[in-house]
Amino acid sequence: MDLFCGTMGSYLPYVLPALGGYVLISLFLLKNPYILHKKKRPAFYCTHISHRGGAGERIENTMEAFTHAVKEGTGMLELDCYMTRDGHVIVSHDDNLLRQTGFNVEISSLNLKDMPFYKERLEVTFYAGRYSTGEDRKFTLLEDVFKEFPKMPVNIEIKKDDPLLIRKVSSLVKQYDREDITVWASEKTHIMKKCQKENPSMPYMFTLSRGMQLLLLYYTGLLPFVPLGESFLQFYLPQLFNRTYIPESQILKNRLVISLIEKLTMKKSLFKHLAERGIQVHLFVCNTERDMEAAFAVGATGVMTDYPTVLSNYLRNHPPIAPPLPAKETAVN
User: Fold this and answer.
1) Which residue ranges traverse the bilayer (predicted)?
2) Where are the domains of the chain?
């Protein structure tokens, strides 16, 4: 033991300066990412994202919802897709239609002509106790969204590991010439890899595991040295939990757990670093001005909401300041 301590002691004069130098270099590069990385130049930059087309103001994912959100000035539509038995790509948050329609049936078991209607009143998932209504209760085809809004950026989350669905979505994106304004999204890395392989031209999001890796890189100081392929980071605003959004998981109902998640993830220096590398940071689902203000205050470049009118009004009264362009960019990756 004495020998071990003595050996360690002999290395300390070398280890401590090296560690200190690493920390200083890492912090410098965190604040000046353009030294090692070329800033991403996406085809669009959005501060206003409509979750499920604005699920608080119209029935979620209907054409009426999308039209209303676009009219209110949204910069991106967020949606999810599944495929019917006869091969049509349907916009729907759930594969099983019980919550949305009252029928305990999966989209994949139905032909397009047999799709039921949405309920007349639908609870807003991220605003417990609030309901949306609308005249339009029909499920929408992804192709119709592309036809109706050819220039509108769309974030498509793929939840189901279905190669045919991924292929169909990619085919529609190519058909309507919108690869630069349509974003792959998925929580699962193995699904995202299939999406990227099918259409590598489309920008894509961090998955859940990649987000965890991002945090690890940040806290170990390695982030400034590592290239990132993703163009978007989407993450919950933790203060929503147990207030407007009641999670199903028991562990996420614990205030201490949520407080820890908030302290670990809501890092302004991290979000600023990503933004300066051209990676957009979207926090969701912010349905009150209080939450919108908190999201932008911590460094979000955009906010996702179920209430596009509320977010538009907030942005008119509190226009976000665009991050300054770096003075110099010398890329090595």
Assistant:
1) 12-30, 215-237
2) 47-317
